[in-house]
UniProtKB/TrEMBL annotation:
This is Helicase HerA-like C-terminal domain-containing protein. It comes from Ancylobacter novellus (strain ATCC 8093 / DSM 506 / JCM 20403 / CCM 1077 / IAM 12100 / NBRC 12443 / NCIMB 10456). Residues 423-452 are annotated as: Disordered. It holds the Pfam family HerA_C. PANTHER family: SLR6007 PROTEIN, UNCHARACTERIZED PROTEIN YJGR-RELATED. Residues 11-506 form the Helicase HerA-like C-terminal domain.
Amino acid sequence: MSGDIDGKIFVGKSEKPEYLTLKLANRHGLATGATGTGKTVTLQTIAEGFSRSGVPVFAADIKGDLSGIAMPGEGQDWIVKRCEEIGVDYVPDEFPVIFWDLFGEQGHPVRATVSEMGPLLLARLMDLNEVQEGVLNVVFRIADEQGLLLLDLKDLRAMLAFVAENAAKLTTTYGNVSPATVGAIQRSLLVLENQGADKFFGEPALKITDLMRVDPRSGYGTISLLAADKLMGSPRLYASFLLWLLSELFEELPEVGDPDKPKVVFFFDEAHLLFDEAPKALLDKIEQVVRLIRSKGVGVYFVTQNPLDVPESVLAQLGNRVQHALRAFTPRDQKAVKAAADTFRPNPKLNTAQVITELGKGEALISMLEGNGTPSMVERTLIAPPAGRVGPITPELRKVAIERSPVRNIYDETLDRESASEMLAKRAAETAPAEAPVTPSPGAPAPTEASAAGGGFLDSVLGGLFGTRAPRGRMTIGEQVTRQVTRELTNQVTKAILRNVLGGARRR
């Protein structure tokens, strides 16, 4: 089934066929509507149209429902009826699909290096305050100046330990670097690891070109689906990944102006997560990328429940609009309905605000860019059904698709080359002083296991009191951090003991 014509994707039918013009598809778009109103089916229909036109597509699959696009449609009764209503024949079709998964469970692993993510996105990902973000920037700066690669989270942890160990020296060059602030960042990093982010950071990092493949047999653009059902349990990780993806596209792709069709199109479901609690610096970055990335031939389509979820500065960049039903039960809902209605070019035949609340499942108000980029008048439209399967596929079928994937031998195995963690450990080993052999006095008792390891807690306290300490030996970065924490604790205990002793002496 396809009502596409040259240079246009058939979206549905109002009083006339409604099309999305490929030449204007890089002007971005928005699909909104309440849960259960048909947004996912609309997304699939438009994604299939892009694929048939040879345009690669990336989409986040929040519930797994989009996975059916990899299999031919089944001609369900409602699909056949819908085709009759809009005047097209139903013809099942299947599309080339690559499955991806940040956790590597339902698709090929998706990875990025810590350096690629950068301090701005990492700071948001770890929910750092301004001071902590400043220290994180210092960490990245030092790593860059000293040629230390930040690839995975153990590299970042090693750099944080190095900065904490040398905080006094670094402060004069980079400003105040407090070990307490470094410790707070390390705790946030631990939370991030517990959410599974350690699987995302590393190598081989995702190559943007692998999201821009065209199937050599059919000429269809490949549809890359990101399994996001589990990822939604870590919404900050999901949002940070999408923003990183946009940034990488912006940085890597060349300027092409307005091509006859996009080089790649992205659908970002649950788009409100990109903007929730985002600092102004990050919102400014998103607005800049969305505004400028179209000249690189990239179309970005946000999918969310409420148009108010998207900041006005970004909303103004989204020219192609699909509005499913909204329910005006609360004052905020009523405000959303009015906002959605006001963004459309008015149609004298429609009361737009009223129609938004009356739309049935599979219906939508549509306004697409036409001519020189002006929006068409809003029309009440019955959306065309997909040609691929509607609904999720079985795990067995997904596994078969993954095994046949053109990238199956590229990303499935993790690489761990020498980077900051290994290089700092090597430096520590090379600069550590050699231990002098200890000759026990005649008749002296053999050292216990605790004393051989550097003494117990009482030894640490006495060492703090009398200025002695056990030899450091060759320690790893983790051992150095542990030693530093122990030293600080010892100093605090020592001061408390001295205050009690001296205070008691004064009172006597």
